[in-house]
Amino acid sequence: MSKIKSICGFAAAAAFASVALAAPALAYDGTNCKEPGVCWEPKPGYPAKDKIVGSKYDPKHDPKEVNKQSESIKAMEERNRKRAENYAKTGKFQYDVKKIGAN
């Protein structure tokens, strides 16, 4: 019984290896690359960079939405600064910034 399991396991491994080795042949060959690894091409009908503004492809990003992450990072850095100052003073780490001011 164990010989049958080992033969089946070997056959499955061999089949997987043959598929894994054949996969790179199916990959994009890079015939229209500007340089190695830069093979992106727009779909037909996609406008040039200078004509995107005002077209249906214009993302129309709201500045408030774009700045949300930078605002949250600034707030995080401020909390971490308060935690570090409190640790330097007391020698104990306090995660909750609200409790730091209460001491």
UniProtKB/TrEMBL annotation:
Keyword Zinc annotated: no
Disulfide topology: 33-39
One biological process term in Gene Ontology: methanol oxidation
Region of interest called Disordered, as start-end residue ranges on this chain: 52-74
EC number(s) per entry: 1.1.2.7
Substrates-to-products reaction catalysed: 2 Fe(III)-[cytochrome cL] + a primary alcohol = 2 Fe(II)-[cytochrome cL] + an aldehyde + 2 H(+)
The entry's keywords: Disulfide bond, Methanol utilization, Oxidoreductase, Signal
Description of how the protein assembles with itself and partners: Heterotetramer composed of 2 alpha and 2 beta subunits.
Family: Belongs to the methanol dehydrogenase subunit 2 family.
Protein's name according to its UniProt entry: Methanol dehydrogenase [cytochrome c] subunit 2
Species this protein is from: Hansschlegelia beijingensis
